[in-house]
Write a structure and sequence with these properties.
18 helices, Growth Hormone, Chain: A, single chain, two-stranded antiparallel ribbon, 2 strands, mainly alpha
Length: 479
């Protein structure tokens, strides 16, 4: 029987364009905030890294909090769309504030300004917007093929935006005269672009009603023994299916459900490593400036990463169908990604920029399937919780996306700051010490390869699709 479809092409494209908004924030901060703070504002890389790490402690709490709030939200716009829409206004203000640190205040006040603006952005507004955006994958369609398509389209916009930001930002700052004022102008432009794209994305889709989401679903009473499924309702249990009325549960209950889902924990680990990988790779601005002696090469390497990634995303839905699921495709892809990063490291020590670019492109192509099907993988993992417990925690489940993105990215940036400080980096210096140069090689060449290898090992255990098939077969036998 053919799966019901819910979305038109313009719904999918409109949804995907929302990642323009997320990535004008994410790409600008991940690639440039550290070098802005060290070389323009004059801050210490180690202190900045520590502040980012501390800020991420608040993120870890807010991710689960906002996920739970989305699950409990009822409005004319739905559960997730209002959080996505209103949250981005705060994102825009905080992004500009980070790049508007006053020159005349004390060093302590500069650190405080950055920490407050950065924490409000990441732990507050970006969390609300990003978790809601990710949760829409499970709330606007029940068709898994459409979810994979949405993920692929979303990440094509994401990587395209990231590529553009990394390509043009250095030139834009120079065009506006360089210095702090130029960085502020660039941040304002990006914030406006983000506001427009986020609004268009929110208005391009609608959420399914609770009744539509639960129509045709049957679950096992996973917590109360002796429950009897009868007439669409679990007798002796806690949850009604036919009426679409879910039992109310606390944040602690939702967290407990997620903690018992081993696939959720694996996805959290994979997301964490993926974002640490990206954060260390985003320190490429230092590698290009001081090792390759050309900051503009950051844009060239960004193309080598993002063009193959976009090409891979175009074919991800077809490949998922050909491989009969996401499991084997993701493993094969990340194995290729690990080999590609190893080649990049070897080429880096050889001093061959063309070979580095070629191996970088191979790695990106291999990593693209997981980027494209990750949202579908999370939705499938959310379904696993529903099939085993009879409870929907889609918003809380999707908090792993924001949790991994922000904590992983923040931790990676913090690690980079600590390693720079440990190596004796001097912001704005024409030449760096030998110890710093060695550290830049480790950060840009070896750490990304190691993180890819760890992700590959995690993916070998992440066969949630087969687990769901077994559960559904078991439920069908009980009918």
């Amino acid at each position: 029987m053919e799966e019901k479809t819910y979305l038109k092409w313009y719904n999918k494209v409109g949804y995907g364009s929302g990642d323009i908004a997320g990535n004008v924030v994410y790409a600008l901060l991940s690639a440039f905030v550290m070098i802005f703070l060290t070389d323009t504002v004059g801050m210490n890389a180690g202190v900045v890294g520590t502040l980012i790490a501390v800020s991420k402690l608040f993120d870890g709490i807010s991710d689960i909090l906002f996920g739970s709030l989305i699950d409990k939200t009822k409005s004319r716009m739905g559960k997730a769309r209002p959080w996505m829409f209103y949250g981005y206004f705060g994102c825009a203000v905080c992004l500009v504030a980070i790049f508007s640190i006053p020159a005349g205040i004390s060093p302590f006040a500069k650190y405080a300004w950055f920490f407050i603006a950065y924490t409000l952005l990441n732990a507050g507004f970006y969390t609300a917007n990003n978790i809601a955006y990710s949760a829409l994958t499970a709330l606007i369609t029940k068709n898994n093929h459409e979810r994979v398509q949405m993920g692929s389209i979303r990440f094509m916009f994401a990587f395209g935006t990231s590529m553009l930001i990394q390509t043009i930002t250095v030139g834009m700052v120079a065009h506006f005269g360089g210095g702090a004022a130029a960085w502020r102008t660039v941040a304002i432009i990006y914030a406006i672009v983000g506001l427009i794209s986020n609004t268009l994305s929110v208005m391009s889709v609608r959420e399914l009603s609770p009744e539509e989401l639960e129509d045709g679903e049957t679950v096992k009473d996973g917590e109360i023994k002796g429950g009897e499924i009868k007439g669409g309702e679990i007798k002796g249990g806690e949850m009604k299916i036919a009426g679409g009325q879910e039992e109310k549960y606390s944040l602690a209950d939702a967290f407990g459900l997620l903690a018992k889902n081993k696939y959720f924990l694996m996805i959290c680990g994979a997301y964490l490593l993926m974002q640490i990988y990206s954060a260390t790779l985003n320190m490429g601005i230092y590698f290009m400036t001081y090792v390759l002696k050309n900051a503009n090469l950051l844009g060239v390497f960004s193309w080598a990463i993002n063009i193959p990634m976009i090409i891979g995303l175009l074919f991800t839905p077809t490949l998922v169908a050909r491989f009969h699921g996401m499991y084997r495709l993701n493993i094969y892809g990340y194995t290729l990604g690990t080999i590609g990063r190893l080649g990049t490291a070897i080429a880096g020590y050889m001093g061959s920029v063309p070979l580095m670019l070629a191996c970088t492109a191979i790695a990106a192509l291999g990593m693209s399937p997981l980027q494209g099907d990750m949202n579908a993988l999370i939705a499938t993992t959310s379904e696993y919780t529903y099939l085993t417990t009879g409870k929907r925690v889609d918003g809380t489940m999707y908090s792993c996306t924001s949790f991994g993105t922000k904590v992983g990215g923040g931790l990676g940036t913090a690690i980079a700051g600590w390693l720079l400080a440990l190596s004796g980096y001097v912001g704005g210096a024409a030449e760096q010490s030998a110890s710093c140069m060695n550290m830049l090689h480790v950060m840009y060449l070896w750490l990304p390869m190691i993180f890819n290898l760890l992700i590959t090992l995690l993916l070998t255990k992440l066969d949630v699709e087969k687990a769901n098939e077994r559960l559904k077969a078991g439920h069908a036998r009980q009918q």
